């Protein structure tokens, strides 16, 4: 177990040298849209995006975008829902997800292929809900302002004299 943990830690550290994924968690409403950012630190041929569904215990390929901006989608993956945008100047890719629905819940990973293996980002957990759990609005009572005494120039001058 120790060896497995150590190798997973090393692999995670190795992946972080290549890419940084943000944010860690997104909580948003149904029908909204959202964005996940993946910044790359080394040369690459393109970026893969995957989704892990805890509910279905399924790791699903969503889309691959190469450096020329050509996207290849997974089976039954909607091009209207998932779009990849590349910002070459910053060596970053962002996954835009629209028409959000609770069925989109899961952990999303950006990934690059390196030395015959896939290096995954840290993951972004997406939770889509019908109503955001916002705190109830409190009614604030207006703070009463006491009049502040002030001195005119003429009074100040008379005091000095």
Automatic annotation (TrEMBL):
- Annotated region described as Disordered, given as residue ranges: 142-161
Q: Where are the transmembrane segments?
A: none
Enumerate the SMART domains for this protein. IG (SM00409), IGv (SM00406)
Q: Which Pfam families match?
A: V-set
Q: Which GO biological process annotations does it have?
A: adaptive immune response; regulation of immune response
Its keywords, alphabetically, are: Adaptive immunity, Disulfide bond, Glycoprotein, Immunity, Immunoglobulin domain, Membrane, Signal, Transmembrane, Transmembrane helix
Q: Where in the cell is it found?
A: Membrane
Top-level taxon of the source organism: Eukaryota
Annotated Gene Ontology cellular component terms: cell surface; membrane
Please provide, alphabetically and separated by semicolons, the GO molecular function terms listed in this UniProt record. Answer: coreceptor activity; MHC class I protein binding
Q: Which residues form the signal peptide?
A: 1-19
The annotated topology with respect to the bilayer is: Single-pass type I membrane protein
Which ranges form a coiled coil?
A: none
Domain Ig-like as annotated: residue spans: 15-127
Please give the name of this protein: CD8B protein
Q: Which organism is it from?
A: Drymodes brunneopygia
Q: Which gene encodes it?
A: Cd8b
